[in-house]
Amino acid sequence: MPPTLVSPRVTTTARELNELYFANGWTDGLPVVPPTPDVVAEFVESTGLPPDHVVAVFPDRNRSVTIEKIAVNSVMAGCLPQYLPVIITAVETMAMPEFEFNHIACLRSAFPHFVVNGPIVSELEMNTGVWMWGSGDRATTTISRALSLILWNCLAQRPGAVQAGAFGIPGRQSSLVVAENEDVTDQHGNGWEPLHTMFGYDATDSVVTCVSLCPGFGQVMLSLEDAEYLATAMLEHVFASFHKAPYLITIPPPMARTFIGAGWSKQDLSDYLKERARYSVAWLKKSGRWGRAAQDFPGNRWDPDEYRPKPGDENEYIHLFSKEPGPWDLYVFSQHELDDPRQEIMIIVAGGDGAMDMAWRVPHNGGQWASKKIDRQAGATATGPTQSPEGG
Length: 392
Prior knowledge:
- Helix content is about 25%, strand content about 15%.
- The protein contains ten helices and 13 strands.
């Protein structure tokens, strides 16, 4: 017997459907696939859960997200039913306390991004190679779109509601999800540990890791032959914003092979970068990265002299990831300390050939990494009350 759906129904023609969705603000700016009751019911049935089952509760929005709402938005995005385990798990990670969901309403245009690891990557034929951040394969592209629509329709993450990002992010509808390439090895067959094992999961587990990211930085290297050269070159752009926050660095296979062949682990590269991430006070002032909130000044008055280089500033350095308290702590845009220092810089392998990398950072008011094992039965381990507040 088909599940009983509770979402409102509208009667319209195929030609008028998308105009209706645009007029009512039910889409994130792109046309949608019609979420007809029979298709939505098929998606719900594939999870083995009732339509009103609550997958995740978001207290900051006074909303919850049900299986039916996930199914509706996934159909609209063009997903296949077998993508639902990834989508459900991604929604669950956003609701985990460590992610601190409400921070994505900030002005800095932070937005949830998701890394998928494990056997499900190949099973769903998720793209881990060329153009992997830029859509192209059905799985990562439509899963990204489904999550964009869930955020838009179920969690008010849209302009005119609580979306306050000054510029937004490119690729919200197609580039929120990336799958790690776990098969890259050097000539001796040695490889790197995949991201999810850094969080304590087995390599054979399928896992979604959620992190809020601000638009990233890219750098083209001149050579792929020397691991230390590559790591040193990365320093100049990865930390240019000088925010003490978690970073996600994407390394393409050719660069990964160079590091692996030289005996570097992901942790070795992370430690090398953290130990050398420093800038002089003079450089920070000249580049506009030196500053603190007005309330930190005596009498709450901004003092322009604080931002002008002084003699000796060129020899005074700030180490971004230093754990030692220093006189310059107020000047480093920082978020609270991570529970695990190893998570300050996380590295994945993905992309096509090339001597370049891509670095993203978490906003300094952002949450921490949140990860969860994918339930292959789509929703059998989901918890929560079987009711949905209005708007969920």
